[in-house]
């Protein structure tokens, strides 16, 4: 376990294995340990980098509300710290982090060996209904009030166990309590939630102004557990718009890295 200071915030980073570099970035409210099943499969073949964004996992408090460009820069700074020689990396983004990793691939093409989007967020017509300042201010107030009355410690770990079935292992129980009982995780999750629309709008602009590198290997891996045909169609359309390989992890819920880790590992290992 190590920490890298970026923008004055300590970022929790885990580096495992050897070989070409890949970066795993989890969705809103998730932590480094959600990738554990995937890391076991990748470590013999890849140098696997996991990190927690500010306000998630074991990283420090989120001092500022996130922006898409800032998250792409964050990935670059993490790689600067742990990737001697600056080898291009395959970036793997789950859910909201799919936005972040696609932005990285567009803004840092020379540093991107491949892009894997794991049941990534999709917004065909993104919009926001209130000013960013109002939304961020409301999230900060809500987070302060809930934290002040002890909500994270009282119900945070239990809500995590309800939301993510299958957490197992003695270390997992302790890690879940340590992470989801912390007020910084509630506050950071709220900030990412209320700025989700901003990230989607930023990505729309980036797609117009910064094309993906020619012949960049891109894979869209969609979750499917039967019945969610509309979501599958949107993921397929995302793949088509990016010129990506389209794969389905079946059966799998949204947390593909836990439900179908082999599918994620296969997608990563198919890139150089």
UniProtKB/TrEMBL annotation:
SUPFAM superfamilies (alphabetical):
alpha/beta-Hydrolases (SSF53474)
Say yes or no: keyword NAD present: no
Q: Give this protein's Gene Ontology molecular function annotations.
A: hydrolase activity
Q: Report the protein name in the record.
A: Alpha/beta hydrolase
Q: Where is the AB hydrolase-1 domain?
A: 23-267
| Pfam families given in the database record | Abhydrolase_6
Alphabetically sorted, this entry's keywords are: Hydrolase
Q: Which InterPro entries match?
A: AB_hydrolase_1, AB_hydrolase_fold, AB_hydrolase_sf
Gene3D superfamilies named among the record's database cross-references: alpha/beta hydrolase
């Amino acid at each position: 376990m190590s920490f890298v200071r970026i923008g004055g915030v300590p970022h929790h980073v885990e580096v495992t294995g050897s070989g070409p570099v890949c970066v795993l970035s989890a969705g809103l409210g998730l932590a480094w340990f959600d990738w554990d099943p995937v890391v076991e499969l990748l470590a013999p073949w890849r140098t696997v980098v996991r990190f927690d964004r500010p306000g998630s996992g074991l990283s420090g408090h989120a001092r500022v509300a996130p922006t898409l460009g800032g998250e792409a820069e964050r990935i670059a700074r993490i790689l600067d710290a742990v990737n001697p020689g600056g080898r291009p990396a395959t970036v793997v983004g789950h859910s909201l982090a799919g936005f972040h990793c696609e932005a990285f691939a567009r803004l840092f093409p020379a540093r991107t060996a491949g892009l894997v989007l794991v049941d990534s967020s999709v917004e065909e017509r993104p919009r926001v209904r209130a000013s960013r300042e109002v939304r961020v201010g409301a999230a900060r107030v809500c987070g302060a009030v809930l934290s002040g009355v002890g909500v994270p410690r009282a119900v945070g770990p239990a809500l995590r166990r309800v939301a993510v079935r299958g957490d197992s292992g003695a270390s997992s129980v302790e890690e879940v309590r340590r992470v989801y009982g912390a007020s910084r995780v509630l506050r950071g999750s709220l900030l990412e939630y209320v700025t989700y629309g901003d990230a989607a709008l930023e990505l729309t602009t980036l797609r117009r102004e910064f094309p993906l590198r020619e012949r960049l290997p891109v894979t869209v891996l969609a979750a499917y557990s039967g019945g969610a045909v509309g979501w599958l169609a949107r993921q397929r359309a995302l793949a088509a718009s990016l010129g990506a390989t389209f794969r389905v992890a079946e059966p799998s819920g949204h947390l593909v890295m836990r439900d179908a880790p082999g599918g994620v590992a296969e997608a990563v290992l198919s890139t150089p």
